[in-house]
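Checklist before submission:
- one chain only
- standard amino acids only
- sequence pasted in full

Submission:
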Amino acid sequence: MTSADDRIATTPNPEATFNDLLTYAELLNTPRLARLYSYILRHGPVEIEAIKTDLDMAHSTTYKYIGQLEEMGVLTRDEDVTPATVTVNPIRLQLDTEHGEVLATPTLVDAIGRQLDTEDIRVFVERQGIAKLAAALHYTLRIMAGELTQRTAATKLGVHPVEGMTVFTALQDVVEEAASYDPYLERPE
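Returned file contents:
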């Protein structure tokens, strides 16, 4: 039998859960913030000047987004070294919905940020939206695992086969790179 104290100790922290949800929502709705997060995750610890140069970001924009990530609780500054460096934590959000379990990892955040640099992803998001991109990433993982063909996945996704195949190919590049920095990625075998 479990005591009330045991149940309280094992109850999830609703505030932390909703903060994670809000963090993901901000990253998924702000491609430049998502791109910065992904860059720091891949290259961290990284100097702020390197971020500005490599991502071709204005000084004020870089510091604005770094401050935002810091406020979200995912970025840490190390000012004990000169010049100061920043790192981010890989974040994971798992939701149990009436449609099944949904898992969002840094790979999805990277895909969101890639729409700034990868035309195939940008056009797909403009036409289909972020939710469809998340679903396309899910199907991309299944394609890479050999569970589906691109044509079958496009049908399940509800898009024209050419549009599906185009985005799956672009997302395969994201997944292949994510294998090195996303500890939550369900890697294709």
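Reviewer check: The first helix runs from residue 4 to 10.
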